[in-house]
Amino acid sequence: MAFANEADRRVRELGFLDRVRHLADAANPAFAAGSVLVPLAFLGASVAIGSTELLFYTHVGAGAVWFGFALIFPAVVGPTLGGLDEEASAAVTGTLVPKVVFFLVGFSLTTVLSGTVLLTPALGLGYGFSGTWSTLSLGVGWGLFAFGLAVPHRLHLSAYYETRSPDPDASRLESIEKKNLVVGLFEGAVMLAIVALMTGFRLG
């Protein structure tokens, strides 16, 4: 493929910071920075002006974006890419994945950080929820954030690097797409569980 070269293949061997810089360049540095800093800026503003209402809406809004992408990407974007020819799919993946990674990191981090502030009275803006359910929901939220970094982001990046290799393996890309679907459904189920916990819904 025209855009695949030796430098792309060597990206796999770079250190963490070098990989981040490579992805930021691929995503567009301004977009990468904005994806992380803009949602976090709402969190910072909430704390700076002492607005619990803004903090709450920041948490809900960021969580909704995170939730939506967790379902849309594997359920819609993945199958759509699978229906394209190899060169077109690789071109879209190479453009889309770096942007998605920074976008989701920014909104998922904002979600868990704002949730932490909301549920921690000692931080000054918390609602003061206490007890097992709120602690559990916060713990599950941070667990899901860590899971996102460890599994779906790695799958997206695996597809990205595979498409940029000199000889992409179509069967491996198909396998990654199937894993993305399963992982997305799992994330969606966990997010629904968090919503249920936070709204006081109980079974039995």
UniProtKB/TrEMBL annotation:
<protein>
    <submittedName>
        <fullName>Uncharacterized protein</fullName>
    </submittedName>
</protein>
<feature type="transmembrane region" description="Helical">
    <location>
        <begin position="131"/>
        <end position="151"/>
    </location>
</feature>
<feature type="transmembrane region" description="Helical">
    <location>
        <begin position="30"/>
        <end position="51"/>
    </location>
</feature>
<keyword id="KW-0812">Transmembrane</keyword>
<keyword id="KW-0472">Membrane</keyword>
<feature type="transmembrane region" description="Helical">
    <location>
        <begin position="181"/>
        <end position="201"/>
    </location>
</feature>
<feature type="transmembrane region" description="Helical">
    <location>
        <begin position="63"/>
        <end position="84"/>
    </location>
</feature>
<keyword id="KW-1133">Transmembrane helix</keyword>
<feature type="transmembrane region" description="Helical">
    <location>
        <begin position="96"/>
        <end position="119"/>
    </location>
</feature>
